[in-house]
Write a structure and sequence with these properties.
The chain has an 8-stranded mixed sheet with strand order 1-2-4-3-5-6-7-8, sandwiched between helices. The chain has 11 helices and 8 strands. It is an alpha/beta fold. Helix 1 links the parallel strand 3 and strand 4.
Length: 294
């Protein structure tokens, strides 16, 4: 028997959003937003641990996992459009309030959703999900920032050659984890297999370039965090060099001490891998302070 269900929801524009879900229908909702280059698969072990008390929903963003876009839709892969798609998904499910777990690309999507619906988000768990300039790892982002500035085809091709490979995908999972041999290899092999689909590498490069549009929104994200009073659990892989620990510490500027928890895990970027029980316990304790249980 599966510990969660999988479903597809067809939106009015023909997009079919794939999602994994479990938990009581009347329980508070926890939305899990994955990062690059993964999908809802990264939450496969966390969902059952949290679904006793929460209705847990983990979806695949467009361009990832098993969400499908009609060929005739002429969908443009930007963070604004990813956000609109997820907004339509939540509307279709009549979801008006939710806590959210944001990681990597899931962070700007979730925070853009919060700007669209300022009263919708009840709590944030951010796992290496950045909202501050100091959260960028300078060395990792240097070639990406150079591409943002130039939009040069040569730099795009260089990123394609160096980033969208099995070696780099594996590195993202293993770097900083003290026990990389414990990481299930299907994680990075599945991610890479989906990257290798026809046309998907161009999708990834489009989104990597468009990530630059999130940075000018950081002050707005921070203003919303500050004014909404949303409780925040920043639970970071301390060895991540993509989004570094300073990004977690920066939340102290905008979240009251009584509504903020900052924790560091001995892990890298994909800190959830091999640490699901640690995260589930911390998330359960955190949400238990601010949300009712089923």
């Amino acid at each position: 028997m599966s510990l969660y269900e999988v479903s597809k929801l067809k939106l009015d524009n023909g997009i079919e959003v794939f999602y994994r879900h479990a938990g009581p229908a009347n329980a508070p909702i926890l939305l899990l937003l994955h990062g690059f280059p993964s999908s809802s698969h990264q939450f496969r072990n966390l969902i059952p641990l949290l679904s006793t008390h929460y209705r847990v929903i983990a979806l695949d963003l467009p361009g990832y996992g098993f969400t499908t876009i009609p060929e005739d839709l002429a969908y443009t892969y930007t963070f604004a459009n990813l956000t609109d798609t997820i907004d339509a998904f939540l509307t279709s499910l009549a979801i008006k309030q939710f806590a959210m777990y944001i990681f990597d690309y899931g962070a700007p999507v979730g925070l853009r959703l919060a700007l669209k619906h300022p009263k919708a988000v009840t709590a944030i768990i951010t796992q290496n999900g950045n909202a501050y300039e100091e959260g960028f790892g300078a060395e990792f982002w240097a070639p990406v920032r150079s591409y943002w500035a130039s939009h040069a085809p040569a730099e795009r091709e260089e990123l394609k050659k160096n980033v969208l490979t099995l070696e780099t995908t594996t590195w993202q999972y293993e770097f900083g984890n003290p026990h990389p041999e414990r990481i299930q290899p299907e994680t990075y092999y599945l991610d890479q297999a989906l990257i290798e689909r026809p046309g998907n590498k161009e999708v990834q490069l489009d989104l990597l370039y468009d990530y630059r549009t999130n940075v000018p929104l950081y002050p707005e994200f921070q203003k919303w965090i500050r004014e909404s009073g949303v409780p925040v659990l920043a639970m970071w892989g301390k060895n991540d060099i993509i989004f570094v620990p300073a990004g977690a510490e920066a939340f102290r500027r905008d979240v009251e001490e009584s509504r903020l928890e900052i924790r560091f895990v001995d892990a890298g970027h994909f800190a959830l891998e091999t640490n699901e029980k640690v995260y589930a316990a911390a998330i359960g304790d955190f949400l238990g302070k601010f949300l009712p249980k089923a």
